[in-house]
Amino acid sequence: MLNHEDFRFDTAEREGDTVGEIAYRRIRLHIVNGRLKPDEKLKLDHMKQVYGASVTTLREILNRLAVEELVAAEGQRGFRVAGVSDAELAALAELRILLETYALRRSIERGDLDWETRVVAAHYKLSSLEGMLMRDQSAAVEQWVASDWGFHYATISACDLPVLARTHASVFDRFARYHMLALDFRGKPAAKEHADLRDLVIGRKADAAVNLLSSHVRSGAAHITASGRFG
């Protein structure tokens, strides 16, 4: 089973965490949730006060995030938050589809009753938040993004390929960043697609599930692109 701890939308401290690891998770989350804006200059002296880490540690963190393409290194000029564009969003959507559909097929083949239970439970939580959002409770968008991850993670959690899991999680993170910046939920169509995907996954209908997942991701990207914010 894949490890849900490989990817987190929270900054909860865990036993044995170093100052650097805590700061890394906080900075990463603040980029994904839009608190740190695209192209924002990352000033080390200010970040030292906010995140409680030394300048040396912060440089290491920002270089690590640059490898993940959440931060851009500018040589002697320092670091900034990675920019956004419709072209990158489209590329992330296709990469997510490539990774997630493979993992989904493998999970459908290998998943047991416990896996099915995780899928149903994760969908229940997600659908509850989707109901809130459809009643215009926009404050729940960040919770929805985390629960959207939780559901999609659950569907592929029987894949049992940790390297694939980590790569997919990183791509999902960058894709989710666009949702958080747009602060927009696609509404009833997205909720229905999630419910249909749950049923297809539990029913072990791999071809139909993969086709629905692919169109679901592309529709989400198209909805964000239509906002006109990232051209």
Automatic annotation (TrEMBL):
Record's keyword terms, sorted: DNA-binding, Transcription, Transcription regulation
Cited SMART domains: FCD, HTH_GNTR
Domain HTH gntR-type: residue ranges: 17-84
GO molecular-function term, one example from the UniProt record: DNA-binding transcription factor activity
Matches recorded under Pfam families: FCD, GntR
Protein name: DNA-binding transcriptional regulator, GntR family
Species of origin: Salinihabitans flavidus
